[in-house]
Amino acid sequence: MFRKLTFLTLVFVLSLALAIPASANPGKPNFGPSVYGDGQAWGTKGAAGLPPPTENNLQSFDKLFVITNSNAAGQLPVAEAAPGNPGYNGGRWYTHTVAWTAAGFNAHGTVPVLMSYADVMFHASLGHLTITPGSPAGGPPDFFECPLLPVK
User: Fold this and answer.
1) How far is CA 122 from the centre of its chain?
2) Taking burial as the number of CB atoms within 10 A of a residue's CB, which of 6, 13, 121, 138 is the most buried?
3) Could you report the per-residue pLDDT of 135-144, keeping only the tens digit for each?
4) Which DSSP helix (H) or strand (E) runs through 21?
């Protein structure tokens, strides 16, 4: 029950952070913490869905990891790269669903808050996470544009 409630809360927060600002007032910045990238929290600016990429432009998208079952307070989606990182593509995202495994919960109890691509990849390499391309039910579009902004 706790995991389901945590997932529903995450979906609600993500919807507020990414979907509602875009539909209510496209382009209106949200300077509150919405996404972790490169170890810090970032705000967002109105999301717009994008068509799936082709082989020729897939590299122009960064991965956005939506963690569906974290029991850590304050977990936000995690960006592969953020402003200032040479690999940042300006806010073009390919959503991936992330779930902590039983091994991850057994190793940590309360799992750590993931704040960077390195955190995600480290725990995935230990078998603590499963990563599946595509968005979870009720999450952001699989492919979308949403620049990251400094939190104020």
Assistant:
1) 16
2) 6
3) 999 999 999 9
4) helix 20-24
Percent of the chain with pLDDT over 70: 82
Instruction: Check whether 17 has a pLDDT greater than 80.
Output: no
DSSP 8-state assignment for residue 123:
H
Radius of gyration of the chain (CA): 15
Token pair recorded at residue 1: 């029950």
Query: Could you give the 3-state DSSP secondary structure of residue 8?
Result: helix
Segment 67-106, tens digit of pLDDT: 999 999 999 999 999 999 999 999 999 999 999 999 999 9
Which domain, by its residues, includes 90? 2-150
* Domain count for the chain: 1
Q: What is the pLDDT, as a whole number, of residue 60?
A: 95
Distance CA 59, CA 126 (A): 26
- Cα of first residue to Cα of last residue in the chain, in angstroms, is 34
Q: Strands, E, within 38-147: which ranges?
A: 40-45, 48-49, 62-67, 78-79, 92-100, 129-133, 143-145
Nearest to 63 by CA among 117, 114, 124: 117
